[in-house]
Amino acid sequence: MAEVSVVVCMDTEGPCADPGDPELLADWERVDAAMDKLFDPEFRRRVPDSAGGGLRIGWFFLTWTGFRTNPRGRAFGYHAIRDHYLARWGDDLAALGDEQCWHYHQPPASGIGNEWSADWGSSDEFDRIVSRQLFERDWFPSCYRAGGTIMSSESSRWVDAWFPVDYSNRAPIDVPGLVDWAPAPADWSLYHPDPEDFRRPGAGHRLMARCLDLRTSIHAFAEADVVAAFERARSGRPAILSTFDHDYRDIRGRLESFQDLLASTASRYEDVPWRYASPVEAVRGYLGASQPEPVRLSVRRENGSVLLEASAPAFQAIPWIAVAAPDGEIRSVREGVVRLALDAWRWTPAGEWREAAFGISTPHGMPAVARLAA
Predict the structure, then answer these.
(1) Per-residue pLDDT tens for 303-329?
(2) Interaxial angle between packed helices 28-38 and 252-266, expressed in degrees from 0 to 180 and rounded to the nearest 10
(3) Closest C-alpha among 210, 214, 192 to residue 202
(4) Are strands 330-333 and 57-62 parallel, antiparallel or unpaired?
(5) Average model confidence (pLDDT) for the chain?
(6) How far apart (Å, rounded) are the C-alpha atoms in residues 153 and 184?
């Protein structure tokens, strides 16, 4: 009998002030009060899974940069949202088995801070964000969710190069005027996306998981969604049952309803085990992979080059390299990197730099970061 992994994804975007929607939490005080409810251990244990475990959450942190205007009072600035969460709930996040993931909205050519773009060429802010997360916070995430689940062939290929796990599949929902997810697998399976059409299985590198709205104007999680996961597991195929919402809403009641729906359905499938899991952990369980050992990434100089060696094969063809130039600018570097083996590379720097940070992850989502001064 296969297992159902239950994943809750939180698009972690901070405050959102909208006079037309008073339900939205307009400042950090209100967001903090709502999120405090979700870090309550009693809430997490309210409906235990088959093994007695409590609810776990994948926090998909967004960085509000690359915009010129801020009509919704967002928390602009590199690291602003993730830093806030780690300062307030960092210990709780670790103790509860939650996971830190990355969420990205592509800024539009207009620069308006409440509009999104499907044009991957409208900005390269994604590159700056990842580089600064690595260089300034020693953080290289393994799991990604597209903002608004907006994706193109170009952005999909970029994600495919760097992140082993992606929770952007929203099948069969059509995001009006943006992405029609109907052609994608509309079940609780994983798939490798086609390089030209990310909605279809193909030769892509990463694994795509389906994640549906907990409750929006487009979709509300229903009993049929849960039953489909348990039926799949009963047939001997693992399932990742995943839903998402946002931290700028007070959603404890929504999640309690979701838990009640889980409990009600599970009572009719007593032969099917189910468990709460963080996003990457759920993928490992789906693949039948055991918990991997932490990965180490070592760097050393050799004859004018930098040699990098990992303790396990990497998902990425080359490490992400972020360097600080003498003027303080942080940028990514792709040139001069040669892969020597699945776990080894040589980088021959060109130009001046004062410090570099390197990031990789394994196919099963174990990250490693290293630093080197010039």
Answers:
(1) 889 999 999 999 999 999 999 988 889
(2) 20
(3) 192
(4) unpaired
(5) 96
(6) 14
Instruction: List strand residue ranges (DSSP E) for 207-280, in order.
Output: 207-210, 212-213, 239-246, 274-276
Tokens 């300062």 sit on residue: 87
Angle at 241 between CA 243 and CA 60, to 5 degrees: 40
CA atoms of 198 and 55, how far apart (whole Å): 30
The tens digit of pLDDT for each residue in 191-217 reads 999 999 999 999 999 999 999 999 998
pTM score, whole prediction: 0.97
In which residue are the tokens 């798939």 written?
Answer: 191
C-alpha dihedral (211, 212, 216, 219), degrees to nearest 10: 160
Sorted by sequence, the CB contacts under 8 Å of residue 270 that are 6+ apart come out as: none
Q: Which of 201, 241, 249 is nearest to 222 (CA)?
A: 241
| Residues sharing a CB contact under 8 Å with residue 87, sequence separation 6 or more, in sequence order | none
- What percentage of residues in the chain have a pLDDT greater than 90? 92
CA gap 368, 284 in Å, rounded = 17
Characterize the bridge pairing of strands 57-62 and 4-12.
parallel
Q: Take residue 149 and report the two structure tokens written for it.
A: 């689940």
